[in-house]
Amino acid sequence: MLPIEWEVLLLGCLTATACGIVGGLALLRKQALMGDALGHSLLAGIGAGFWLLGSSRSPWLFPCAVASGLFAIMLVEFLAKQLGGNQATALGLIFPAFFSIGIILISLAPKSAHIDLDRVVTGNLDLAPLDRLMVDGHDYGPRVAWSMALALGFIGFYLAAYWRHLHWILFDPAGAHAMGLKPDRALSILLLLTTCVITLAFETMGTVMVVSLLVAPGATAWLLSRNLTNYLLFTVAVSLGAALTGRFATLAIDASTTAATSCAALALFGTAFLLAPQEGLLARWRASIKIRERLDARLILVHLWHHEIRGDSEIECLASALTHHLNMPEVRLNKALNRLVKDQLAEKNGPLWQTTTAGTLLGRSLVEDDTGSRED
Amino acid sequence: MLPERYPAAPALDVEDVTVVLGDRTVLWDIDAVVPRRTLCAVVGPNGAGKTTFIRAVIGLLQPISGRIRIMGESFAQACRHVAYVPQRSGLDWDFPATVLDVATMGTYTSLPWWRPMGSEQRRRAKAALETVGLSDLASRSIGELSGGQQQRVLLARALAQEPELFLLDEPFQGVDAASEASILATLTSLRDSGRTVIVVHHDLHTVAERFDRAILLNVRKIADGPVSECMTESNLRRTFGARVGFDERNTAPRSMATDA
Amino acid sequence: MPDFAVIAGCALAGILYGLLGSFSLARNQALLGDVLSHAAWPGLVLMLGLTGSRNFAILGIGACLAGMAGMAILDLLGRGSNRLKPDARLALVLSGFFAVGMLLARPVQSIRPGSQGHLQAFLFGQTAALVWSDVMVIALVLALSLVFAASRWRDLTALCFDPVWRQTTPASNMATSPLLDTILVLGIVAGLPVAGVALVSALLVCLPVTARVLTKRFLPGTGLAMLLGGLLGASAPWMVMGLESLAQHFHGDSTLRLPTGPVFVLAGSICAAGALAFRYLARSRAKATGAINHAAN
User: Fold this and answer.
1) Which of A85, B100, B167, B184 supports an S-S bond with B138, CB 3.0-4.6 Å?
2) What is the rounded distance in angstroms from the CA atom of residue A23 to the CA atom of residue A53?
């Protein structure tokens, strides 16, 4: 039997991993906001379940919630078609309506079945293990942990079953269809799994913060990896990292574990956003300075070469007039010219700048390599 | 409308312009001049940077080198004499507006904010719709228009601006033949009345028949000038035929091209 | 009978959201409001912790600053990496700011005992907590938005329909777009006591969608959205009261309290659904008669 602190940690890890994987797959399909919509919509099912079943503990609440989530998604797709493909507006219309219905029903339910309204939005990871799985009077641990582990098992099974075709199904459903796969079925199962995971995470993470567990691990992995296997591995690693960091942070400060886990996931994302080796802000900023310097040198080279073949280099390539013609500050121009001289691509010949033989070849190849090979 | 400061300057003067998007050079060192009272086509294959060229001219993109003069002035100074007609596909045609509303937008520029729309503005908008042949549809929702009609509404908006220079980005894309003929006729009569019209276009046939001048672009400028001079077979092959320069290119030292 | 302050506050908020929502819908930013309302949350919590004030005018300053920070980070994420898609950026900022607010909530509640209920009121909106000073804040922001919209109407129309073309015209004003964003943040924050963090932004969608379905021009559409918002807002407190007494009647519990936000939003959504259904039916009928005419010809 684990002490309750460890149960909270275990539950956090299971929830974060399950959310991270399904959310990561949704992110690949550009449906990051679907999780937000699902989390809000399933409340209508829970509210209706309260009234129908008269209890907040009935196991039948779960299918009610899943059904209302799936129904909301179907409505969103129908409405998006009506609105001329505007999915954002459809989302913004449907999920608050479902959420409102849920809140009204829960607020008006008899006190005996009452749950705290703000727990709906905020979740509570610390209290979730109080709900035990009891069989024949024997305590088997937190109920949510078992259900979440089961869901994780299903996800693993799903990934194993579809692994070879996952690329096709996620990135090119039409192509997958042409190959004789059944992408619609695969994506429907994925949607069902996602809804189940979000419904299970609802109690621990609430409707809003579950979104960071769904999106942040995937978004972090997105910045760090370039293929699907790595992407999923990174996603799981970030999810686990967030759960661990969040739990241990709350040992130091008095705060909600849910919020801490959620913040940790985002902090990991923020770190990757700034420091990722290729996609990070810092790396891109550094690369852009280097590229800009190289570009300056190249554009001067192309300018010299252009006017040499056109035969008006006496006007255009005058050392004193270059800064005017190119409309470029003197400092940048001189830096680029020094670079060209160092690379032996251009040289100063009296008052004129000229390309060397190597410079002529490079200038031409630069321009002609680009010709026709670029998109607008 | 303010008088122009340099009546003798060409409508468009582009000098050594290089445009970079991200880390790709989209336009290399472009020089081009478009004199006034001409109908000029910007021609090139997909991905040649035609749209980028227009966007640089109207100041939506900042070139990393070179300068662009419109009637002798920078775009910010000259913008009251310029009308830009964007690509039809970039707009949200579900926007709640009527055909007349869009045409009236062209006259916004001539009024300070506290003055309500006067009869002068309404007259200008209606006249512009008349010119493009949409008077009957003035109170129609823009969402109900066909592609060609949408393009004509945008042209009417530009007409209502009463500019000296028109810049049109792919106005014939997805447009029916009747609309295309009507738009071309409007543009020709604008040229005849002393305006300058620059059109991004890719149908070589209409360019050769109806336009005065052309700028052939493919990342760099291939040629510019009167249609009869610059639309030669060799220039066109250099613009459109990617294979033409192939042998030459292979002789260029690869290593230097990549790591200089 | 609901308090007059409550009716006035809800009606003014409805008018405000009709106006602001018309712009955000026309700019295809239906979900931006949702992100901004959640982004305002940590500012509210932090301000409550720092000042201990219950005055919404003071808490609102923190919320506005946090909302602006949310907007700035959204922008930074967009510039920083083109691998992150817009929906992912929205989701990250939305949940991230809210999580930070929740992380601060417990420490703040321990420094400022008794603040828990006050914070809760901002989650879903609480008419019982709405006082005249809150109404004044809403009225002030509404007045500001109306002046802004009236003085820049033409520029705003151009900005919503064709922002690229607008930039090429001399009449465009560089400040219009950032000012509109700022006013959106102010409006969202001002409405928090009425509809709460979770639902305030829904009003930015359902009111203008209804109006857009029923009108074909921008100015009348905006007017209709404002009118609808005002009417629904004024009747929302009555609906809350009616539903509360209905529930009491059901199970005899007189301590039930229903938040206003969901009722207001649900009423707005029903209007939008009605309008959309009306259009759908009208269109399919037109299609059917069109087919018959076609067959007859």
Assistant:
1) B100
2) 31
